[in-house]
Amino acid sequence: MKALPISAQIAAHNLADELIAISTHLAGAGKFGAATAHRLSGIAHAKVQEIDDAAPLDEESMEALKGVAVLTRMANESSQIGMNLLQANKDSIKEMNQKMKPPPKRVVVEVVDASAPDA
């Protein structure tokens, strides 16, 4: 980077700052989206209790089912940014975990005939 002219160094630094800001904001959006998905899923779970097991297709149960469907769809949509970020970083995380895993050790077991007396 030092080989670049000063104006190019400044432009590269500004670009790096912008990319860091984008990354930070998207991570925050993913966090909030995950929290929203969690809350909406909880509300949908509570709404399921309004469905009559004996008559799941009556008018009241159908209204509850529609609410559950909308809440679930919204929860799934809210989780997309976070899910995409996790998916995008899946290989990096896998690689980091591999580096932390100790290499396997060889274990040698000696089998001795127990029926033979010790000499």
Describe it.
The chain has about 120 residues and is mainly alpha-helical. It has a domain at about 5-80. The chain has 4 helices and no strands. It has helices at about 5-50, 60-80, 80-90, 90-100. α1 (about 5-50) packs antiparallel against α2 and α1 crosses α3 (about 80-90). The N and C termini lie far apart (about 75 Å).
Tell me briefly what this model is.
The chain is mainly alpha-helical and 119 residues long. The protein contains 4 helices and no strands.
| Number of helical stretches of at least 4 residues | 4
**SSE topology string:** HHHH
Give the termini distance in whole angstroms.
75 Å
Spatial shape: flat
Taking pLDDT < 50 over at least 5 consecutive residues as the criterion, the unreliable ranges are none
Strand content: under 5%
Radius of gyration, rounded?
29 Å
Helicity range: 55-70%
| Oligomeric assembly | single chain
| Mean pLDDT over all positions | 92
Task: Quickly give the structural class.
Answer: mainly alpha
Q: Largest beta sheet, briefly?
A: none
Number of strands: 0
Question: What's the helix and strand layout?
Answer:
Elements (H helix, E strand, L loop, with lengths): L5 H43 L10 H20 L1 H9 L1 H11 L19
Helix pairs in contact: 1-2, 1-3
List keywords for this structure.
119 residues; mainly alpha; 70% helix
